[in-house]
Amino acid sequence: MKGYLLFILFILSMPGLAQVGINTDNPRQALHIAGTTGTLRVESLNAANNIHNGGDVNGDLDLTNDTFPLYVDENGEFTLELQVINPSDDIDAFDDSALPTSTLYLSPTDADGEVTSILKTFTITVNREAILEVKYGISFDVYGGPLKTNITDLLARRIQNHITVTGDTRIYGASSKSYTSGSTASQVGNLFNAYSTYIKLPAAGTYDINFIGMVSSNVTSDITSTTSISTYVEFATGRDFLFMRLH
C-alpha cells in the first residue's frame, strides 16, 4: 500500500504534467507535436473506418491530393461529417404549391415599375457570431399577364431573386435574368436564378433568412400616362435547390 501511495505522490508532483510533448521536452500546449515533419493520424477518420472519407477519389494512388475537411462538433470531437441547414438533396427546395407567395404580377399601371415579395423564410438560431453560407437555385416562368399569354412586345423585363436577413438592410445573393420575346412561340420557362453568398450573423440570436422574388421593368412615358410593362412570373416551378451551412 505504501508503494502505491508513493507512486501517486510522485506523479502528482511532476511539473507540467498537464502538458504532453511529442518530439519535445518543452510542450507549449496540452498536446504539442514538435518537428518539421510531425503529423497526427486518427485511424477512425480514415477511408476504411469512416464513410465520410472518400479515400483515393481520383484513383491515382496518391493520397496527398485526396483530402477532406475536418470539423469539430459541439463536444469538441473531430468529425468529417458535414452539418448543413435545410439541405434540399434530391428534393425540391422551393415547392411552388406550398410557398406563401409563388407568383408576382407587375401590372401595366404600376407607377414605379417594380413589385417584390417574400417567397419563403427560414428561421435559424445561433449562440455566437457566425457566417452563414448559402447556395440556391430558384426557377421561374415568365408571361405577359395573369392569363399566361406569351410576351411578344420585344420589351425587356428583369426577374430577380435575392436574400434579406433580420435587422440588416443589405441585399445578399442577388441573381437576375432579363427576358424579352417577339414571338408567340417563345419559351417561357423553366429559367433559373442561382447564386452563392456568405452572410454575417453579428451576434447570438434568431434570424429570418428571407428569399425574395422581384419583377421589374422600365417605366414608359407618354403625354397621357406613365406605365410599367405587364409581366407575370411564377417562381419555383422547376426543381429548385438550397444549401445552407454555418461557419
Topology:
Layout: H1 2-12, E1 20-22, E2 31-33, E3 71-72, E4 78-79, E5 103-106, E6 114-126, E7 130-143, E8 157-165, E9 168-179, E10 191-201, E11 205-217, E12 220-221, E13 226-227, E14 231-235, E15 241-246
Parallel strand pairs: 1-2
Antiparallel strand pairs: 3-4, 5-14, 6-11, 7-10, 7-14, 7-15, 8-9, 8-11, 12-13
Provide a quick synopsis of the model:
By secondary structure, the chain is mainly β.
Index terms:
247 residues; mainly beta; 4-stranded antiparallel sheet; 1 helix; 15 strands
Please provide a written account of the structure:
With 247 residues, the chain is mostly beta strands. It contains 1 helix and 15 strands; from the N terminus they run αβββββββββββββββ. Strands 5, 7, 10, 14 and 15 form a 5-stranded antiparallel β-sheet that branches. A 4-stranded antiparallel β-sheet has the order 6-11-8-9, with no helix packed on it. Strands 1-2 form a two-stranded parallel sheet. A hairpin with a 2-residue loop joins strand 8 and strand 9. It is elongated, with a radius of gyration of 28 Å.
Main β-sheet description = 5 strands, antiparallel
Distance between the termini: 53 Å
What value does the average pLDDT take?
85
- This entry's quaternary arrangement is single chain
The best one-word shape is elongated
Low-confidence stretches: 4-14
What is Rg?
A: 28 Å
Query: Could you give the count of β-strands?
Result: 15
Number of helices: 1
Percent of residues in β-strands: 35-45%
Could you estimate the helical fraction of the residues in percent? under 10%
